[in-house]
Specification:
By secondary structure, the protein is mostly beta strands. The N terminus is likely disordered. It catalyses: L-prolyl-[collagen] + 2-oxoglutarate + O2 = trans-4-hydroxy-L-prolyl-[collagen] + succinate + CO2. It is a single-pass type II membrane protein. Its cofactor is L-ascorbate.
Length: about 240
Amino acid sequence: MGDRKRPANTANKKTKIEWPSVKPKSNLQITRLKDDDLFTIPNYLTCDESKAFISTAESIGFVHQGSLGPTRGEAYRDNDRISVNDPILAQEIWEAGLDKSFANFKIRGKVAVGLNPNLRFYRYTAGQRFGRHIDESVDLGEGMCTHYTLLIYLSGDSGQTKPKLKNQVGSRDSADQLVGGETVFYGPRNALVAEVPPAEGMALLHVHGQKCMLHEARNVSKGIKYVLRSDVVFA
């Protein structure tokens, strides 16, 4: 399947965007960090696919998004963002393997049917982060509601650095790679559950809504962190 052009509604302008194709993957491996509430899928996007999404997002142009933090009743946020409403692209990403990964998931009798077509691209440069917060479910109408957050890291360690659970230590020493920007999850009494370093092409999924764990995107110390964000829809 080749690249295709179609209108994309973004936060800052409307233009015809040439999205990269996302090919279906086989033999995807799920790493569960907290049962089915938190897991990763390495190599969900290839290196070429990840870089193509970054290039396309940069061609659209990011818009800064910020918030002032707990003193204003909200999580501290400092990053750059693009929002795209694209059901076709969302379906293609879903059918690259998430459809099979969620085949046996049920929440209150509902099954996973796809991704929220509201796709967001985040860019974090050195010094930017997203403070501790939870993700809310989104009611899409007609009995459809989101129950999982999907993050696909478009930059990071191409060697697929493994997530660290509590009490584990590790290092990421290459001078050329992204430093910082880990997604960190907390349990009761702010106990560390998992620390997930960005790894190029890796998908991270966690339950949101009422069961959402408190989490944050740590400060980027070096390099640029790019993330593709959507939500898994149940119906």
